[in-house]
Design a protein that fits this description.
There is one protein chain. The protein is α/β, with parallel strands linked by helices. The protein is built from 12 helices and 18 strands. The radius of gyration is 22 Å and the shape is globular.
């Protein structure tokens, strides 16, 4: 090769790389349901195998201080897709079929991520669990998604029959469907089909929301038997959960393979996270963290989170930078070059600088977590937590006293300092009250938007 030819080749390569850097990235957002902080190989699990999710950690950045907005499903999903604290978009608790046990209604003026991305030329699809409304105007197609293929409801009573309270909430667009197969496999297949359908060079956002490993813990039988044979001494309950997670990992591997084969992988930003911590009583592993799903202790809130973006995020990198679900909204918008309208309030803060390996100040001074629920344990009331610096004040039952922990000295929340550090309790409880007053301006029941004030 002559010097002139080499120069031309080098110049062409530089132009190609620059064009790739300037191109809008595709976005693949994968959300697991109730995945424990310690239930992946890359987060220390010893009795399960998650090679495909672990591969994301090797290829990108692993967060060790990423938090869900809420310790249960709907509120975190609302926060993730709006960039706001969940109560401020009308979803303080779980959206369910029956009004007497329903604790949220997505407010009509909430602006969701696909709406903002559409302004930057993105096609948006959701595959899997929606859980933000069961009817218009709160279905995915009503709220900005171009394609919906999945489940409207909160959970399935059976992974094979796909019903909830005897009702079929599976939809393709607005059409009710009734396919055969395990829900995890269906969602993986549908996500793969969605990727194959997208033309190269036209940016897309695919939100792949699994309902695994949420109850019922119902893996395919062959996956369960495989775990039992491989893991000596494992109990049946744990083996079933491990199998359900491994089956999901296999589906994610399928999706990632299609992403690669279709030529999209080199310009796709992948985010993997969970909507809350793992459910202890079904065998989840939240690592050393205290408690799990449904609680505002660390085990209910801290979640595994991984980000991959070829040539932009350093492979195999770890960060202790603190962020939460709603921060993904502005992060993805910034990466996509999608402008958030000035009239659209956002509580989330972009962590793109951290992803790109740059120093970044803390995203906020105060971090608020909340859940509203019914039944005798909650009575329609809430549990709350607020964190400022190393201090975390929480009330894990509406009928229990406040608890205070120093997470730097006591990350496992074993030593309650509420009686000793009264001034800190007073300061943080005042911050909690201010946030509760802010939340109280927003209706959260069906028809609540018609309430006059």
């Amino acid at each position: 090769m002559t010097g002139a030819t080499a120069a031309v080749v080098l110049f062409a390569g530089l132009v190609s790389n620059a064009a790739a850097a300037d191109a809008k990235p595709n976005i693949l957002l994968i959300v697991a349901d109730d995945l424990g902080y310690g239930d992946l190989g890359c987060y220390g699990a010893k009795d399960l195998q998650t090679p495909h999710i672990d591969g994301l950690a090797r290829r990108g950045m692993r967060f060790t201080n990423f938090y869900a907005n809420c310790p249960v499903c709907s509120p975190t999903r609302a926060a993730l897709l709006t960039g706001r604290y969940q109560d401020l978009v009308g979803v303080p608790g779980v959206i369910r079929t029956h009004d007497e046990n329903n604790w949220g209604y997505l407010r009509p003026d909430a602006v969701l991520l696909p709406v903002v991305l559409k302004g930057a030329g993105y096609h948006s699809a959701i595959v899997g669990k929606w859980h933000l409304g069961l009817e218009a105007p709160n279905t995915p197609l009503d709220r900005g998604f171009d394609v919906f293929r999945g489940f409207l409801g909160d959970m399935m009573d059976d992974y094979y029959t796909h019903r909830r309270h005897g009702i079929n909430y599976l939809r393709h667009g607005r059409q009710e469907i009734d396919p055969e197969g395990h829900a995890t496999g269906l969602f993986s297949d549908w996500a793969s089909e969605s990727l194959r359908s997208r033309p190269r060079g036209e940016p897309f956002f695919l939100y792949l929301a699994y309902n695994a490993p949420h109850t019922p813990i119902q893996p395919p039988e062959e996956w369960f038997q495989r775990v039992r044979q491989r893991e000596a001494g494992i109990g049946e309950k744990r083996a079933r959960l491990v199998a359900l997670i491994e089956h999901m990992d296999d589906g994610i591997g399928q999706v990632l393979g299609v992403l690669e084969d279709s030529g999209h992988a080199e310009n796709t930003l992948i985010v993997f996270t969970s909507d809350n911590g793992g459910q202890i009583d079904v065998g989840a592993n939240n690592g050393p963290l205290r408690d799990g799903k449904g609680t505002v202790y660390e085990g209910g809130l801290k979640v595994p989170t991984l980000c991959v973006w070829p040539e932009r995020i350093d492979p195999g990198s770890d960060t202790s930078f603190m962020a939460m679900s709603m921060d993904l909204f502005p992060t993805l918008c910034e990466a996509a070059g999608a402008e958030i309208d000035g009239d659209h309030a956002v509580d989330g803060r972009s962590l793109l600088s951290t992803l790109l390996g740059q120093d970044q100040p803390p995203l906020r001074d105060e971090w608020h977590f909340r859940r509203r629920e019914g039944g005798l344990a909650y009575g329609g009331k809430t549990i709350d937590a607020v964190r400022r610096g190393n201090w975390k004040l929480l009330q894990n039952s509406p009928y229990a006293p406040l608890e205070l922990y120093n997470l730097h000295e006591d990350p496992l929340e074993r030593k309650n300092l509420a009686n000793r550090e009264r001034q800190v309790v007073q300061q943080l409880s005042a911050a909690m009250r201010r946030q509760i007053q802010r939340y109280g301006r927003v209706p959260w029941q069906r028809g609540g938007d018609k309430v006059t004030r």
